[in-house]
Amino acid sequence: MNTPPLIKPLKRFTRRSCIHLAAIFATSLLTPAIAGAEVNTTGLAVTDKDVTVGILHSVTGTMAISETGSVQAEKLAIKQINEMGGVLGRQIKYIQEDGASDWPTFAEKSKKLLVNDKVAAVFGCWTSASRKAVLPVFEQYNGMLYYPTFYEGLEQSPNVIYTGQEATQQIIAGIDWVVKEKGAKKFFLLGSDYIWPRTSNKIARKHIEKLGLKVVGEEYYPLGHTQFNSVINKIKLKKPDVIYAIVVGGSNVAFYKQLKAAGIDMTKEKPVLLTISVTEDEIRGIGGENIDGAYAAMKYFQSLPNDNNKAFVKAFKEMWGDDIVIGDVTQAAYLGPWLWKAAVEKAGSFDIDKIRAASPGIELTTAPEGYVRIHENHHLWSKTRVGLAGKDGQYKVVYETKELMEPDPFPKGYQ
Amino acid sequence: MFSDYSTAELLSIFAMQGFAGLILFSVFVLMALGLAIIFGQMGVINMAHGEFMILGAYVTYLISNLFSEYMPALFSMYFFLAMIVAFFVTGALGAFVEWAMIRHLYKRPLDTLLATWGLSLILQQTYRTVFGAREVGVSLPDWLMGSVPLTDIIEIPINGLFVMGLTLIISVAVYLLMYKSQFGGQVRAVVQNRPMAGAVGINTEKTDRFTFALGCGIAGIAGSAFTMVGSTGPTAGQLYIVDTFLVVVFGGAQSLLGTIASAFTISQAQSTMEFFLSGSMAKVLTLLVVVGILMLRPQGLFALKIRH
Amino acid sequence: MSMQNIRAFMPRQDLIAFLVLAVVIFIAMPLAMDIFRLNLVGKYLTYAFVAVGLVLCWGYGGILSLGQGVFFGLGGYCMAMFLKLESSTPEATAIQSTPGIPDFMDWNQITEIPWFWEPFHSLPLALIAVLIVPTIFAYIIGVAMFKRRVGGVYFAIITQAVASILTILIIGQQGYTGGVNGITDLRTLLGWDIRSDSAKYVLYFVNGILLFACLLFAQYVRKSKLGRILLAMREREDRVRFTGYDVSNFKIFVFCLGAAFSAIGGAMFTLQVGFMSPSFVGIVPSIEMVIFCAVGGRMSIIGAVYGTLVVNWAKTSFSESFPELWLFAMGALFIGVVMAFPSGLAGLYRNHVGPFIEKSYKRLRLSYENYRKPDNLVTSD
């Protein structure tokens, strides 16, 4: 790639002087460029000084509510990496694109990032639908996507590193805990009507039935639904021990407010409300007083007491303001740039294929959630925690799995 | 499906379910009244209706913050002030929009649809810029969030009662205003025959502006009340728009009574079906039935007898 | 067709407009752009099918449908179902519990392909379905509404409700439809890799040719008696009815035509973008498509194409540089077009650019004639 412009001006020299001169040129001028070529054989946007990555989230549209935190986390991680000297001595620059909560736009923008901008990695997407839309693009143009959201599993792409938990990691530990600690026997499953809640509830149902316990109801409401009084009545009628809720977005706010107003007091012994969809981010909209007493099963809570996390929360607030809250997905998004940096440094190259080969086994001991490691299947080994929501909008960690949970995107016996 | 339950349980559940339907009814009426005035009386298709509601919700949010900051002692009562302020703020914005935009479009109703859709986009982005993309949590006084236990199963949510009371008050007020006051007479006169109304000395421009502002103001109150049951975010308004229009159209656009009757029918149908079917299917079926009936009876449930 | 008929069908001005558009789409764009940008233009042009249909329905027929996304989506889904079945070979889906069915069905415990998917094993049947399914759907809606003289605002709101019903249905029945994710990861058409650059070029041109076919058909409708009846109907429906025409049949026809155009656009969208999702069926995209049409000029089929291109181009470039400002710009565009330029780009051209060109042309011709005249001048002197 670098030779043709060199040869042109040298044409009129003799062959020997040409070689000679070329050698001088190569040693003097070309040294860094050759180094550049070594770490980047596929024409990515990598120069001697910097490397360009993409950030692809919705900053407009309905999903902007959720994705803002991820963008902030990724920018923070990039800033911190740059302050530490960058990746392979190169500062990270980013190009941010707006997916506008619209899946075709996500596909279009991901193509732009990969084809036009030649970014070395993309941190982005939030909903499964947006990931499904960009996935063929990443596979076709061989890009690398770091995807932060907890999701339904059933996917394992060589071009994606999943930094959130897949469904079994999140669900099984939570249900085991509520059965053991709260003596739960009857479950009511509730969700927004799309693939993640449906798949998650399917796994939950299988697991509950395996334990010999009972699912007394399973209900889905359209995305954006705001009237839950009927289902709340059904819950009252069925008297479950556990309300297992996977409601998302604006529906969340309506659901918890109406649940509380209907006299279902989650601070009492029963029913227990266990959710996998409400992070600290969502509680801001719901209001701490409306969700006080609910439990959530996920891998990260802002209140985790370890030192990594304290430093992370402090840095996050310094960059984005004191009143910000950090949820599970935000933390997972923060891991993306760090995992990518580790993979690049292990591979000694920005090439996607080499990063892919280097990724499994990469550990991050500085993760705010503690320790994570990339599995062969591109998901993360991580611990699952159960948090108790309080009036202040924060979760108190009441349980943590002893071991790291193995990610299992195609769980046998749960399909 | 009911064999597992005792008669007492069943009775109380049906009572509860009926009450849930009534709450939904009140919510629908609140959503639709403002639009019924704007769309039904003026023929303006206000696609930004949801955004006007959200403006009311944001006003409530601001006032609740104001109270908890400076007047925590009075916090429990802030909601009433919030609703009044929401009414005037959204009403003022409505008057401005009417002056700047709508009054040029009275002869082109379908174009008001496009223009107000544009307005809704601008309002959404404004909310996002000012309040952030995330939803804001509106903290409510405790007395509003509780419930009154009647029996051990039946519990009446206080905010539901509150919404129902509010709906009643506003409906009565609108009725009095539209049918018993001079203003209402003028509005109806302008609707029925604009040149004639002008000829007898009614200031039609002023009437239009007040009518539009009134509709928006009611949307503002509705938005303020919905902070109790729903979410407040930049795009939350879009959740309401289809339902709202259907309620108004189903009722027969020009009849306020029709709006109330249609809100009642749709809400009862929906909450009953929600109980027997899954939530998504209930919604689809409700919409299908409404569309089906509209096809059979395009003028809606209650139509004025006018010549087309 | 005699020469006179052709003139009536395609007056000189229209012919020029068609030719210019052909040059823009078939020559200028492919030469000026790399395949990435060209593919984007191809995607935008699929929306132009909808906008052209809207010109006929809305501009001529006065029927504003806020549910055109439904037909775009149905056409796209029909195409996507065929492509998905083709890509779901037992080898490619070996990891599933039931290999050989689409992945999302497997995730939803469906073990065999449902009956209504069966016809989509065959490409001819799928192509027929692309045209027929949305048209029949439009026909049912049209008959139900127009026979009962539902029109104007009511029709707009009911189509909106239809769009929202269909969205909820598609999302809710995810085992059969792919749910909110839609039908994704479409790779080949009869073994031909539609994701390669060469395929994208081919698809772009196929798309352009189909668009022109639709445009010519729309032009035919415009210039035929039907077009004049539509216009008359829009202005004074009752008078047309009193003259003895069955107004509703014309409305049904033009609504079905608009639906068929949209469906072709949807199918081409699926082919060029590689997936189809319920986000096109909803209200928001349907209203956006109306604005494409309005920006172009609701009475101009060629304008609709330009309107689509301009708005989408602005959207892409705006949201690349100022994502936060995009909605302001889009909102301002809506309001601006409606208030200041109700006849859109086509109106601007007709009132300002067109006369200018005409004047320059005349001046040029005059000076040319003066140049040719000198002998006469000499003799007269």
**Low-confidence blocks of residues of chain B:** none
- Determine Rg of chain B (CA atoms, Å): 20 Å
Strand order of the largest sheet of chain B: 1-2
Number of contiguous helices of chain A:
15
Provide a compact summary of the structure.
The complex is a heterotrimer of chains A (about 425), B (about 300) and C (about 375). By secondary structure, chain A is of the alpha/beta class.
Could you outline the blueprint of secondary structure elements for this entry?
The complex is a heterotrimer of chains A (415), B (308) and C (381).
Chain A: H1 4-10, H2 15-28, H3 31-39, E1 50-57, H4 64-83, E2 91-98, H5 103-116, E3 122-124, H6 128-140, E4 145-147, E5 160-162, H7 167-182, E6 186-192, H8 195-210, E7 214-221, H9 229-238, E8 242-246, H10 250-261, E9 272-275, H11 280-286, H12 288-291, E10 295-298, H13 307-320, H14 328-347, H15 352-358, E11 363-367, E12 370-374, E13 380-381, E14 385-389, E15 395-400
Parallel strand pairs in A: 1-2, 1-3, 3-4, 4-5, 6-7, 6-8, 8-9, 9-10
Antiparallel strand pairs in A: 10-14, 11-12, 12-13, 14-15
Helix pairs in contact in A: 4-14, 5-6, 7-8, 10-11, 14-15
Chain B: H1 7-42, H2 49-70, H3 78-100, H4 109-131, H5 142-145, E1 147-149, E2 155-157, H6 158-180, H7 182-192, H8 194-199, H9 204-226, H10 238-251, H11 256-276, H12 279-296
Antiparallel strand pairs in B: 1-2
Chain C: H1 3-9, H2 12-32, H3 35-60, H4 68-87, H5 103-107, H6 123-146, H7 152-172, H8 174-177, E1 188-189, E2 192-193, H9 197-223, H10 225-235, H11 237-242, H12 247-273, H13 283-296, H14 301-321, H15 323-339, H16 344-372, H17 374-380
Helix pairs in contact in C: 2-9, 3-9, 3-12, 3-13, 3-14, 4-6, 4-12, 6-12, 9-10, 9-12, 13-14, 13-16, 14-15
